[in-house]
Specification:
The chain has one domain: Alpha-Beta Barrel (TIM Barrel), CATH 3.20.20. With about 230 residues, the chain is of the alpha/beta class. The two termini are about 20 Å apart. The longest helix is centred in the middle third of the chain and has 19 residues. Helices cover about 35% and strands about 20% of the residues. Helix 1 runs parallel beside helix 6, helix 3 runs parallel beside helix 4 and helix 5 packs parallel to helix 7. The chain is built from seven helices and nine strands, in the order E-H-E-H-E-E-E-H-E-H-E-H-E-H-H-E.
């Protein structure tokens, strides 16, 4: 039987002190092995300071081009980083946030992904893949040999609550059904809902689930190897 390797990546690291505490607790007491840093937010410096001290938490870039919420039967922007997305603006913003990342963390990112998966669509997709190739790091959902799993999320595609998706039973089930090879599981833990977000109380539930003893027991029982992107062989 082939090995089953799991990277548990916490998105939004640096967005707020509460998110930072959640990511750190999820790493130290739970199954979180990796995080993606939002470099534009005030708490990014605090998150980066932890990343500099830690030799076990892998940290990548969580590209932030904006945030959207579903209301009045349409997706509407809560904020935008670039007013008009083009190949040029996407490339320039990726380069800017990569510079901020290296200035904060003191090293290149272990991987690349993005807030609300904006890198899965053009024109950002091509710019992100080019950055990943240049750095020699995986890009979420586009890296050969690394499967992406987004089932551990407490809302559906339009932002309606799905609380059962982030309960302990759901995460244990996801762990038990992992395929062989390398899988990235995304999560969004927080110790406190201390910032405006379309996803807030769910973060608190995620943290408790990620640290639950039954989840850790499932990892051991299923012989899952917890790793970060930095641990993967080039």
């Amino acid at each position: 039987m082939r090995r089953r390797v799991l990277i548990v990546n916490a998105d939004d690291f640096g967005r707020s002190p509460g998110v930072n505490r959640g990511v750190i607790r999820g790493h130290e007491e739970g199954i979180v092995t990796s995080a993606s840093l939002m470099v534009r937010w005030p708490a990014a410096k605090e998150a980066a300071e932890y990343a500099r001290r830690s030799d076990t938490l892998g940290v990548g870039l969580h590209l932030d081009l904006g945030e959207w919420e579903y209301r009045d039967d349409d997706w509407r922007a809560r904020y935008l980083v670039v007013e008009e997305e083009s190949a040029e603006t996407a490339s320039a913003e990726i380069a800017r946030q990569l510079d901020l990342f290296e200035g904060l963390v003191g090293r290149p990112p272990t991987h690349l992904d993005s807030h609300q998966h904006v890198h899965n669509s053009e024109p950002t997709r091509s710019a992100m893949l080019a950055a990943g190739e240049r750095l020699g790091v995986p890009v979420r959902a586009h890296a050969p040999g690394i499967s992406y799993c987004g089932v551990f999320y407490g809302q559906d595609g339009r932002g309606f609550p799905v609380p059962e998706a982030i309960e302990v039973d759901a995460l244990v089930g996801a762990i038990e059904s992992l395929r062989s090879g390398v899988t990235e599981l995304a999560c969004h833990p927080a110790a406190e809902a201390d910032h405006e977000s379309t996803y807030d109380q769910e973060r608190l539930t995620e943290l408790e689930t990620l640290c639950h003893e039954r989840v850790q027991e499932a990892i051991e029982r299923c012989r899952i190897e917890l790793r970060s992107f930095a641990d993967l062989e080039p």
